[in-house]
Specification:
Blueprint (H helix, E strand, L loop, with lengths): L1 E10 L2 E11 L4 E5 L6 H8 L7 E6 L3 E4 L11 H6 L3 H4 L1 H5 L5 H13 L15 H14 L4 E5 L7 H18 L2 E5 L3 H7 L2 E6 L2 E4 L1
Parallel strand pairs: 3-7, 3-8, 5-6, 6-7
Antiparallel strand pairs: 1-2, 1-4, 8-9
The structure holds adenosine-5'-triphosphate.
Length: 210
């Protein structure tokens, strides 16, 4: 699903990633650990096509969807409308702005919310959801993008242990049941051990097995 070879990225004139090699298979969960500033976020952003690549190549078997740790939702929009943002690429800006969502997209958004355990919470404003529920909406939006490659950057950093486990179990289930590839950065080794098939450590822009 993802194959990276010799990926080098420079930001602000400084090399941040040094010749990264990494493959993630369909159905696999890979956890990225490592100190702050090591380059984990930069790697996910490069895979998503958000930062320029200085050297190397990134092969994707599917579009990638990013799930951020926080500030990921439009606070004043409903959970459902936040999920529908994931369909913007298919629908186009003006139809979305006019709220002229095709019926099939509305049904798909409801199904995505149900798959993350938020059945019935579609109409609720994002800022009236709990932290765990918000993170589930962010995952539902990634599903709405129909991405088979999920890139989750500290998806549970702001959650209590119980909600953190629930969100990670959700990501793991999406890999297991639906064959999605998941690359997730995590600060807590215990959580990485719980979710990951494989754990990697990033230090100063290089990857090592844990
Ligand atoms: N836009 C930018 N311009 C210049 N340097 C940047 C930019 N963004 C990040 N960096 C630098 O790149 C390095 C890697 O940052 P990155 O955010 O990828 O680390 P990280 O491992 O995700 O850290 P954290 O765990 O704190 O999120 C850091 O030294 C950072 O200062």
């Amino acid at each position: 699903m993802l194959r990276i070879e010799g990926l080098t990225v420079a930001l602000g004139g400084r090399r941040v990633l040094h010749g990264i090699d990494l493959a993630v298979a369909a159905g696999e969960v890979v956890a990225l650990e490592g100190p702050s500033g090591a380059g984990k976020t930069t790697l996910l952003r490069a895979i998503a096509g958000l930062v320029p690549v200085a050297a190397g190549r990134i092969g994707r078997g599917s579009p990638a969807a990013l799930v951020f740790q926080q500030h990921a939702l439009a606070a004043r929009l409903s959970a459902r409308d936040n999920v529908l943002v994931g369909a913007l690429g298919r629908i186009g800006f003006w139809r979305a702005a006019l709220r002229a969502w095709p019926r099939a997209e509305l049904a798909e958004a409801a199904a995505c919310l149900a798959r993350v355990g938020l059945d019935g919470l579609g109409p609720r404003r994002a800022d009236r959801l709990s932290g765990g529920q918000r993170q589930r909406v962010a995952v539902a939006r990634a599903l709405m993008q129909r991405a088979m490659l999920l890139l989750a950057d500290e998806p549970v950093a702001s959650l209590d242990p119980e909600n953190a486990r629930a969100v990670l179990d959700l990501l793991r289930g999406l890999a297991r049941r639906e064959g999605r590839a998941v690359l997730v950065t995590l600060h807590q080794p215990d959580l990485a051990g719980r979710i990951a098939d494989r754990r990697l450590r990033m230090e100063e822009g290089r990857l090592w097995p844990v």
